[in-house]
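Field reference: sequence -> structure
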Amino acid sequence: MQLPPLPAQPPGVDWPTRAWPDGPLDEALIAPLLTQAFGPSPDPELGETHAVVIVRNGRLVFELYGAGFGPGATCRSWSMAKSITHALVGIAVRDGLLDIHAPADVPAWRAAGDPRGAITLDHLLRMSSGLAWLEDYEPGRRSDVVEMLFGPGKDDVAAFAEAKPLAHAPGDVFYYSSGTTNIICGILARTLGLTGPAFETFMRERLFDPLGMTSPAPRFDAAGTFIGSSYCFCSPQDFARFGLLYLRDGVWDGRRLLPPGWADYARTPTFQQPGGDLEGPYGAHWWLDRSGPGSFWACGYEGQHIAIMPDRDLIIVRNGVTPLATQAAARLWVAALAEALA
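Structure field:
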């Protein structure tokens, strides 16, 4: 598959390590969509929109915030944290500490004859481990993700997910699983020998600080594992900085932070069986093609989005609270913004 090239930072445009360079935008192009989200009668299917940030050609060209929010507000990541976890894995790969195609380092799977020992980090990053899991957000229904985050698994999210049996052979079936990401976070903690505050220091020194991200608030369970499935709250501008790192192929202001090709790995499609997940194509901890071929998105519950469109050198961040029954409305709204700016 031919991926659209990732654009370089335009000459003369400063990197937003300290402050975003600004640029022009014809707001008339997106005025109807802004009214839909921020007007006196917002679209009830879209729900609350807390923030939208638009970055084009490396410049912040537009931002708008709902009541009670602003540039310094910390917004929910929910599953956008999964894409941040992908970056942390990339740093460990670049350091020579992890091989994504080797069997995943999970002690609970090492017993002789345990078929889970064939699961690789690549299987986990592509949500194709084959582990039994139920990702369900409907109130009152059985849900592994709810039990992991709020029930019996909350004190050790990685162990809760690692204990699941295989339902399919590794690599045969795609199934989106928040437990999978927390298994990865457990692997990272063991590989680095870091948990809790020490792991957070690693996150800041190797990822957040070089980008000028000052707002991230990652959360950890009682075992000290980063809950990378769901919790790395940030300001919308900092979410955009993270998106710019991937749009620029893992390079920031002349310094390579992620391995060469790591962003391309994120946006290379994963096999999905016919009749599988209806959310669309998936790469490695990033969603694909939600605003045209070649786009890749970090997405979270209630309509959190970092949408990256390499062919337009464009990033759109949206934070808010979209009802579960109309989750697609937020994605379609961001895609409509991208189309209006095309």
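Note: The beta strands are 48-56, 59-65, 217-218, 232-233, 251-252, 255-256, 287-288, 296-300, 304-309, 314-321.
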